[in-house]
Amino acid sequence: MVKVKEPVAAKSASSDAKKKLRPSKVKSLAKYETKKKARAAGTLKKKPKQNLLSGSATWKVVYKSGTWRFVHRPTEAKLIAKAKAEGKPLAETPKKKKSIIVKPIKGEKNGETREVHTVKRKAYYPTLKSPKKHKSRGLFKNHKRNIRSSLTPGTIVILLTGVHKGKRAVLLKTLDTGLLLITGPFILNAIPMRRVHQGHVIATKTKLDISSVKIPEEVDDKYFKRTLLKKKPKKNDSKSLFVQKPKTYRPTEKRKSDQKLVDAQVLNIIKKHQDKKSLFLYLSSMFGLRNNQYPHRMQF
């Protein structure tokens, strides 16, 4: 006789029917179903959250053996009652240590007692809980600029630093940042309109009347701000098949036209001057010192 095996699905269904649920499981399922129906009907009442630190809460938070623990008050009460009935000693809750202890001190005129701290106090306490807010003194751009009295528009100055050191230039005006706007003119000594710090120039007594010179309004500190050039391509970059020359700064057409406009006005003033020949030579020549010549003893 060949035994025919039952299908797996039928076998599992019969085994499920034979299984009986525990009474606790049946109770919990029934409770879940009633809660589900109440939630759908909108009659379910939520229990308010208990404050674990209050005396009326069923649970309380207790610090035991280095950790915080939850203790069920009803069970704790039952255990205490059982221990009392059996006559067992109850575990006393440890009392908090006092932060200050009064100790007696021997000797005369010592006050007899001293208050001693059980826990070592901090070595540093902040003087203020929250630092006071101080009024801002303003930005650097709003500060007052103090310019030397000898540096007035039209003064011929000698440059002491930079690419054009040793050359002479005409001071046009002082900018908002306290820097000096100068020009060569460019035709005489190749100095374009540029900014110079007053500490890097010597003011001479030679002056020109440039009150009639009109400088464009755009010529300010932002006018001289250069645009950032792109970095060189990397060696292993696939795009750089051929050697590319690094980009250098080039003055714009607007800047060139402004330079020509200002220089033409300054040159006209020099041409009208009585000592125009000596002024042209003076501006185009370099400043230098010979032996036994000291700048602090010289008059410019």
From TrEMBL:
Gene Ontology terms: cellular component:
cytosolic large ribosomal subunit
Query: Which InterPro entries does the record cross-reference, listed alphabetically?
Result: 60S_ribosomal_eL6, Rib_uL2_dom2, Ribosomal_eL6_KOW, Translation_prot_SH3-like_sf
Q: Which PANTHER family match?
A: 60S RIBOSOMAL PROTEIN L6, LARGE RIBOSOMAL SUBUNIT PROTEIN EL6
UniProt name for this protein: Large ribosomal subunit protein eL6
Q: What is a single molecular function from GO for this protein?
A: structural constituent of ribosome
SUPFAM superfamilies from the UniProt entry: Translation proteins SH3-like domain (SSF50104)
List GO BP terms, alphabetically.
cytoplasmic translation; ribosomal large subunit assembly
Gene coding for it: Rpl6_2
| Keyword entries, A-Z | Ribonucleoprotein, Ribosomal protein
- Protein family according to the UniProt entry: Belongs to the eukaryotic ribosomal protein eL6 family.
Record keyword Ribosomal protein present:
yes
Q: Gene3D superfamilies per the record?
A: 2.30.30.30
